[in-house]
């Protein structure tokens, strides 16, 4: 019993670390995306990739703001659509998509490879339960 | 003996259900089951092409699979003795009710025994789930059509 | 990730506590308790409150039986949005099936594998 309490305490302590990680790839459009996303307190971190036709932003929303997840996603994507009128914008806080986006950034994929995986990610996000 | 006296004696004889202790146990057991479910969800998101939303389905199926193993080995009964509602409310409890009913009625044959009795305990959940879902959806659809609320 | 585990623990635990209160304070049988929870899950989805809870707590909201009522209603509403009133009938099992189908399949498999001895509910 005592051990369990210690483990729980440890969990609470480690959960409170507030690191913000921001990753934008490739970097040429970074300032605009940054400008939009830094306005939102509820967004803890984000990673984003852009190619010719798409802007893909995976955000990490603060725990207590997750009740309004959909609203936040919609708001941000509206703002981004204004900035990138000729591109398709996808803003999501889904963990899977965040991991996939981070994978693209880590491997620093080339253009066509990236387009392929962006396509895959978009079809994933369209799937409904 | 008067009714009052009788009630008093019954009151003294029946063990007081310690509500708070039961609640704590239900909280812990139910919480642990849901945490295991969250871990399984992470597993599916990480290694399979599931998003947070779609991963819920395989997670539920996996939890029912685990419930099958635990029910068959008799472990789930022990868990539910400790956890009370904590083991009944998660989907594993639903699975346990179905699986234990079908194991129990196996001797009566596959059609009449398993097929007929599988939902003996859990059937009410499906029935009332469907009925309430029907009425809620019906009311909401009509309200939307009337323009009172939006989707 | 750890914060997700904690929230699912707390939220899932709290839903189970509600079930325990229904059983102990209102003296409902387990079947009544589960039915009540399923109905309340479906009503919550009618007000659009259950999906935000899933966004918040993940498995803490999808594992308890309340999510069963939620997904039944959700499927019905999604179809009703597309096809009007008839969708309420046809869409109901669009989303949910995994819990029920898993229970049926593993119920039969379990009956094949395990013998009836100490297993009863």
Automatic annotation (TrEMBL), chain A:
Signal peptide: 1-22
Stored InterPro entries: Spore_lipoprot_YhcN/YlaJ-like
A Pfam family per the record: Spore_YhcN_YlaJ
Assigned keywords, A-Z: Signal
Name under which the protein is recorded: Sporulation protein
Automatic annotation (TrEMBL), chain B:
Record bears the keyword Repeat: no
Keywords, alphabetical: Membrane, Transmembrane, Transmembrane helix
Transmembrane segment boundaries: 26-47, 59-76, 121-143
Top-level taxonomic group: Bacteria
Keyword set includes Ligase: no
A Pfam family reported for this protein in Swiss-Prot or TrEMBL: SpoVAC_SpoVAEB
Matches recorded under NCBIfam families: spore_V_AC (TIGR02838)
Name of the molecule in the record: Stage V sporulation protein AC
Organism: Psychrobacillus vulpis
Gene from which this protein is expressed: spoVAC
TrEMBL record, chain C:
Name of one Pfam family that matches: SpoVAC_SpoVAEB
Highest taxon of the lineage: Bacteria
Protein source organism: Psychrobacillus vulpis
Membrane-spanning parts: 95-114
NCBIfam families xref list: spore_V_AE
UniProt keyword annotations, A-Z: Membrane, Transmembrane, Transmembrane helix
Keyword DNA damage attached: no
Name of the protein in its database record: Stage V sporulation protein AE
Keyword presence, Membrane: yes
């Amino acid at each position: 019993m005592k051990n369990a309490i210690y483990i729980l305490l440890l969990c609470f302590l480690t959960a409170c670390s507030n690191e913000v990680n921001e990753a934008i790839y490739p970097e040429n459009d970074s300032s605009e995306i940054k400008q939009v996303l830094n306005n939102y307190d509820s967004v803890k971190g984000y990673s984003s990739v852009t190619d010719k036709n798409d802007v893909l932003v995976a955000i990490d929303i603060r725990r207590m703001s997750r009740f309004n997840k959909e609203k936040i996603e919609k708001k941000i994507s509206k703002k981004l659509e204004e900035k990138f009128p000729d591109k398709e914008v996808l803003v999501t806080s889904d963990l899977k998509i965040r991991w996939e986006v981070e994978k693209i950034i880590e491997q620093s994929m080339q253009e066509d490879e990236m387009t392929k995986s962006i396509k895959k990610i978009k079809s994933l996000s369209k799937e409904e339960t | 003996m008067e009714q009052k006296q009788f009630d008093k004696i019954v009151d003294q004889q029946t063990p007081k259900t310690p509500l708070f202790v039961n609640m704590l146990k239900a909280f812990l057991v139910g919480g642990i089951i849901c945490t295991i479910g969250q871990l399984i969800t992470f597993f599916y998101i990480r290694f399979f092409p599931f998003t947070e939303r779609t991963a819920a389905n395989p997670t539920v199926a996996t939890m029912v699979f685990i419930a099958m193993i635990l029910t068959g080995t008799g472990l789930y009964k022990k868990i539910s003795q400790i956890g009370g509602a904590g083991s009944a409310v998660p989907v594993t409890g639903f699975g346990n009710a179905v699986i234990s009913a079908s194991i129990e009625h196996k001797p009566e044959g596959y059609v009449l025994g398993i097929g007929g009795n599988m939902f003996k305990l859990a059937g009410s959940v499906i029935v009332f789930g469907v009925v309430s879902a029907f009425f809620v959806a019906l009311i909401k659809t009509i309200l939307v059509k009337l323009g009172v609320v939006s989707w | 990730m750890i914060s997700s585990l904690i929230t699912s623990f707390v939220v899932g635990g709290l839903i189970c506590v509600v079930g325990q209160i229904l059983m102990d304070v209102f003296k409902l049988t387990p079947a009544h308790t589960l039915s009540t929870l399923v109905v309340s899950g479906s009503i919550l989805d009618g007000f659009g409150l259950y999906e935000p809870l899933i966004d918040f707590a993940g498995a803490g909201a999808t594992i308890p039986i309340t999510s069963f009522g939620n997904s039944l209603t959700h499927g019905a509403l999604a179809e009703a949005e597309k096809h009007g009133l008839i969708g309420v009938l046809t869409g109901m099992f669009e989303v949910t099936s995994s819990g029920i189908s898993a229970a049926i399949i593993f119920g039969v498999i379990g009956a094949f594998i395990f013998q009836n001895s100490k297993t009863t509910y």
